Amino acid sequence: MKVVEWVKRNRFLTIALLVVVYLLLNLFKVFFGVNILSLDIPNTSKSQYGSGGTVGISPGGSFDAPAAGISSPSLMPQYQQDYAPQPDVKDRLVVQESSLSLLVKDVTDVRNKIVSYAQQKGGYMVSSNVSNPQDAPTATVIVRVPSRDLEDSLKYFHSLSVKVVSENLVGHDVTDQYIDIDTRIAQIERTKARLETILDQATQITDITNLTQQVLSYQNQIDTLKGQQDALEKNAELAKLTIYISTDEIALPYQPSETFRPGVIFKLAVRSLIGFLRNIATFAIWVGVYTVIWVPVLAIYIFLRRWLKKRKTEVKLSN
């Protein structure tokens, strides 16, 4: 009841205090990621480099649990394997893909050298993402180089690194898929040829219209299948390399062979401490800027409190 009475007597001061508290809570949410009003505590297990799923690559080359560091979509596309095998074919059509995790001294310099080397070999850059987080610069570079130069390219990329953290090379034999598509094209072309023969003999407008639509539909299917064949040929000619680069081994996507690594744990703890101190300093700066609001409110509160206390004392003395 005393609180209610005080609020009734000091309405202006109560409103000012509520405004200050609200601003401080918002600042706390911005810099510490915790919404006290709704108890919404963020998930701190996510990597600072991205909120998307990350793919870990073990030193042995297998894809494993998510790893802190570079966010990445599926590293290797899934090629269909439900085609009839063609063991008699000697010149197999193989799509080669490789992924590397490299520990380097200068991320930007290595990234530029990788792109330049791929272009010199007749390849090209598919994508490049360079970031400069607070802890360590990180980059993800995807390039394509002629398959015949894949081994030389890997050796050159190795030479650019301080340490090859992980490496994975995968080959997809798409020969059966290519031949199956070729068979389907031949079947559709025969059907299309029969329809064209019937179309030449048609006299009714409705028949001509329907047959023309069917011929165009089959032609679209043929064009689509030929496009798939062309894509398989080009993918087989140019190997795809995904290179993860960082100055910090922890930021690279791979699954360590040792689950308990004191050195890594110490680094993570130091980073957490630095981040916490940085947040406190930032919060203090914001509080300092907002002194134009909370200092006058506090001064008014102190003044009113002393004035009320003095008045009560005078009333008691007069009585």
TrEMBL record:
Q: Which residues cross the membrane?
A: 12-37, 283-304
* InterPro entries named in the record: DUF4349 (IPR025645)
* Keywords assigned: Coiled coil, Membrane, Transmembrane, Transmembrane helix
Source species of the chain: Candidatus Woesebacteria bacterium GW2011_GWA1_39_12
Coiled-coil regions listed:
185-242
Instruction: Tell me the ranges covered by the DUF4349 domain, including all copies.
Output: 92-301
UniProt name for this protein: DUF4349 domain-containing protein
